[in-house]
Amino acid sequence: MTAVLRRPRETPPLDTRTWTIGAPRLLAGLDTADRLDLREHLGTHGPLPAVEFDRLLAVLDAVGGLPGRGGAGFPFAAKLRALAPHRRRVVVNGAESEPASRKDRVLLRRTPHLVLDGALATAAAIGAREVVVALHDETTAAAVRAAGAERADAARLSVRVTPGGFVAGEARALVRALDGGPALPPGRRTPPTDSGTVLSNAETFAQLAVLLRVGPHRYTDTGALDEPGTTLLTVGGAVDRAGVVELPTGTPLGIVLAAAGVVERPQAVVVGGYHGAWCAPIPEIRLSRAGLRSAGGTLGAGVLLVVDHGTCALGELARVAGWLAGESARQCGPCRFGLPALAADVAALAAGQPAPGGRPGRQLSTVEAALDHARAVTGRGACAHPDGAARFVTSGVHLLHDEIDRHLESGGCGRPVLGRLPIGAA
Ligand code: SF4
């Protein structure tokens, strides 16, 4: 096994703009304040009611279990039900390893008490002795520590900065790092709940804090019927108004694009982050888990990136595929061999060249080679990184088939790669 350990990330600047479609819930108060201290937080949101375990489950069940907002969308209620009875702790995943994502750091830096409310209420309900906020950068850690120092109920709170990297933000990698191991997914797909840890991302805990205050009835008075409430999206790429937006779940894509200043229909959108998918920019697509699933996408990590006609979309795809291959921990075969081969296929497509490889004895077109490699890595890793990378590439290859033909016929499209899809440290 080759362990790739990284230093904590350089602290990124975070001058992220926030805006809302409909009434704000999580972002309430941020239109007039850079940061809500405890007094402003309580003035904006009111006091948090105490809740016992059974009541917490009932409230969560009344809103569909509260799907997690970090990627997989696993219901928070199901995590509580699966929790082992011993050594219980609550972990807020603030790692936000998606390069384009900003939403969790906006919450943790600007309205940290909302996240802490959700985490501390959970800890009280399950009898946890420890609440850990785990993240990758010092500025956000300092903001959370400052918030903790304002509270009388934060004695069991600690803030930990763990090594950065795309897969280091994966739940089991984060738990492993907190327990003194490398920030890598372990070989077995054992959920954190097996060891008594309830882990969810920062937005999930903030959603819980809102839900506990307003109750299920009011919580469900906005958003999609089957996924009520609001959600946060980080919007970027070729938009005039990049930032973090709070919107009712199920809001049509066209409304969000218009609000972000996108005038012309773009080439494509990338939804869910780099374990997400490329989608046609159909204005009627509903931005909910079910709505995106029916369009071949995923809400995933809550990222929406716009790819305009000025950039080479295939080059953008190749750039991210190469980055994803480099971000693996190189512990498992699919990541050591499969993802680099997949990235090489996509690079060949972008260059309009024949596939560099393929399986022995098989003559494959470049497209077939890429899809073949994507299939070969899916479901084979110790974590979901190969699956997510394969989904990202496969959806792009399918969506960009006209571009691929053009590249293979002419050796390219003549457009530069403008980097609409950011890579590197977030
Ligand atoms: S699948 Fe890849 S990223 Fe996941 S544990 Fe194995 S080597 Fe690491």
Structure notes:
The protein has 426 residues and is an alpha/beta fold. It has three domains: 21-219, Rossmann fold (3-Layer(aba) Sandwich); 230-307, Roll (Ubiquitin-like (UB roll)), CATH 3.10.20.600; 313-410, NADH-ubiquinone oxidoreductase 51kDa subunit, iron-sulphur binding domain (de novo design (two linked rop proteins), Up-down Bundle). It has helices at 38-45, 53-61, 76-81, 103-110, 112-126, 138-150, 171-178, 202-219, 253-259, 289-294, 313-327, 333-351, 366-377, 385-399, 401-410, and strands at residues 18-20, 89-94, 130-135, 157-161, 197-201, 230-237, 243-248, 268-271, 277-279, 303-307. A hairpin with a 5-residue loop joins β8 (268-271) and β9. α4 packs parallel to α6 (138-150), α11 runs antiparallel to α14 and α13 (366-377) packs antiparallel against α14. The longest helix has 19 residues, at 333-351. It is globular and about 65 Å long. The two termini are 27 Å apart. Mean pLDDT is 90; it is low at 1-13. Bound molecules: iron/sulfur cluster.
Number of strands: 10
Characterize the main sheet.
6 strands, mixed
Structural class: alpha/beta
**What distance lies between the first and last C-alpha atoms, to the nearest angstrom?**
27 Å
Low-confidence stretches: 1-13
Overall mean pLDDT = 90
Q: Using the coordinates shown, work out and report the CATH topology of the largest domain.
A: Rossmann fold
Strand neighbour order, sheet with most strands: 1-7-6-10-8-9
The gyration radius over C-alpha positions equals 21 Å
What is the annotated CATH architecture of the largest domain? 3-Layer(aba) Sandwich
The percentage of residues in β strands lies in 5-15%
- The SSE string, one letter per element, is EHHHEHHEHEHEHEEHEEHEHHHHH
Ligand identities? iron/sulfur cluster
| Share of helix, binned | 25-40%
Domain count: the total is 3
Any idea of the CATH class of the largest domain? Answer: Alpha Beta
CATH fourth-tier homologous superfamily of the largest domain: NADH-ubiquinone oxidoreductase 51kDa subunit
Based on CA inertia axes, which overall geometry fits?
globular
Quickly count the helices.
Answer: 15
